[in-house]
Specification:
alpha+beta, 78 residues, SH3 type barrels
């Protein structure tokens, strides 16, 4: 798996697979770690304009608000 340029999670389109690189908010990072979202690539199921970003990994789905997603740095998986 190779990764491309870093971008914000809020800019990811539905269907893309990304690796979460940095989560500045410690509480959000801890929660994502506990549910396995930081252990490997995640798939963006859908994203709404100025709305939530829905992520999925190994059967676990989570919706992150736009302001939270805008703070998270990801890299696209090829």
């Amino acid at each position: 798996m190779s990764l491309t340029t870093d971008q914000r999670l809020s800019g990811v389109s539905g269907g893309e697979q990304v690796q979460i690189q940095a989560v500045p908010d410690e509480r959000v990072r801890a929660h994502l770690l506990r549910i396995g979202m930081l252990d490997g690539p995640v798939r963006c199921r859908t994203t709404l304009s100025r709305g939530p970003v829905v992520l999925e990994r190994n059967g676990t789905t989570i919706a992150l608000g736009d302001s939270v997603a805008d703070d998270i740095t990801v890299a696209e998986c090829e």
